[in-house]
Structures are given as structure tokens and as C-alpha cells.
């Protein structure tokens, strides 16, 4: 298997993990891959999707606000969170 085929295989696996709702640990165990390998490809995939230093901000539903930091930390808050709190979290 060449590099491109391996990359596509891992991207498909990452997509499956995202849709599964399972923890990284459970998903890796279920698919018989090392957790460190799964985390490496998740990080690599995230870096390719979002420029370094970019903070993703979304409103996944009417009841919450989600911040996704470049290091992979995700923060979900109630929709009524004061703007001052959100602003301070954007500047971390």
C-alpha cells in the first residue's frame, strides 16, 4: 500500500470515528489499531482541514455554542452564554 492509499484509508477511518460518537480509545480498540496511531491521524487530519492558529466557532444547535481550538480542545456552552465570556475564551 502506497502513502496516498494509506492516507485515504486513515481519513476514512477518522470519518467513521467522528460519526460513531465513540471515544478514541474505544474506537481504536474496536478497529484493532493503536490509540497513538489514531490520535496521530486525527491531529494530522485536523491540521490539514484548519490552518494552524485558527479557532473554529459554530452554533451546532439553537441551544449551544461550540468552540474548537487548534489543539483539538472543544468547548461547548449554552446559547445564553454572555458575550463577554465568549470573547474572553476566543482570546485564549
How do the helices and strands line up, and which of them pair or pack?
Layout: H1 3-20, H2 24-30, H3 35-49, E1 56-61, E2 64-68, E3 74-78, H4 83-90
List how many beta strands DSSP finds. Answer: 3
Share of residues in strands: 15-25%
Low-confidence stretches: none
What structural category characterises the helix and strand content?
alpha+beta
Principal-axes geometry comes out as elongated
Helix-strand pattern: HHHEEEH
Which sequence of strands runs across the widest sheet? Answer: 1-2-3
What does this structure look like?
This protein folds into two domains: 3-49; 56-90. The protein is built from four helices and three strands; from the N terminus they run αααβββα. The protein has helices at 3-20, 24-30, 35-49, 83-90; strands at 56-61, 64-68, 74-78. A three-stranded antiparallel sheet has the order 1-2-3, with no helix packed on it. Strand 1 and strand 2 (64-68) form a beta hairpin.
Please give a quick description of this structure.
This protein is α+β, with helices and mostly antiparallel strands. It has four helices and three strands.
List the main descriptive attributes of the protein structure presented here.
single chain, 92 residues, alpha+beta, 2 domains, three-stranded antiparallel sheet, 3 strands
